[in-house]
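Structure tokens please, single chain.
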Amino acid sequence: MNTVENAHDTRLAELSAVVRHALTEGAGTLEHLQEALRQCAESLRLGDPGGTATDLREVIGHLVILSEFIDQVRKGLRALQVDGTPFEAWSRSVDVFQQMVSAMESRDWVTLSDLIEYELHPRLDETRHEMLALTARLPS
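Here you go.
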């Protein structure tokens, strides 16, 4: 192997390690977000939209950051030539986000809590599991 090939292999190994770490940490962060969303949905069901609004804004901000994170991880996966279409469940969440915005605008807290609990939560769970599964598919 020549020096250029060694350097390329080293960079791919480093990228793989970074992506693996990011996926593992991302899955943990996603689990915390799911719990925060569950608590928001529960508070909305109990009729406390005012107290929940701040928490919900914070969680939505974290979901925006998560979206950017997933975009960056996808780039890393492409560079590592990992097969497949990662984060399909996340991609399907866009519709749910739009429905959540509509529910917030109309102050329909029951619909919002239903969307969080029955639509968004399962997709986030699927995304979290996919993150963990992707770590096994990364080159060493």
